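Long-time lurker. I teach an intro course on protein structure, and each term I like to show students one example going from raw sequence to a predicted 3D structure in token notation. This year I'd like something fresh instead of my usual example. Would anyone be willing to generate the tokens for the chain below so I can use it in lecture? Attribution to the forum is fine with me.
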Amino acid sequence: MAEFLNPFSGLAPDRKLTDRELTRAIRLTLAAEEEAVHLYEALADASDNPLAAKVLQDIADEERVHAGEFQELLRRLLPDEQQKLDEGAEEVREMAEGESA
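-- Reply from a regular --
Happy to contribute to a lecture. Here you go:
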């Protein structure tokens, strides 16, 4: 499993983070949430125990909610975040339209 960098090594920083540092840290936490979703869904899919699969999927869904919270926080901290996400979404829409034409 991938190991994410911990900028604090278990200790609180000796100063407050700048907004830029905070947004980088939030991106790491967002990546960790996505990794957790992948892990829990893989475990759920690999289990033939219905209760275990149900619990693991529920936890994966909770991690997806956390990812949404971090994404919204990034949108609020970075004025151009939504614009960049919209640009990416538009590129996918254009590619999808090209496939259907």
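Some talking points for your students: The CA atoms of residues 94 and 100 lie 10 Å apart. The mean pLDDT is 90.
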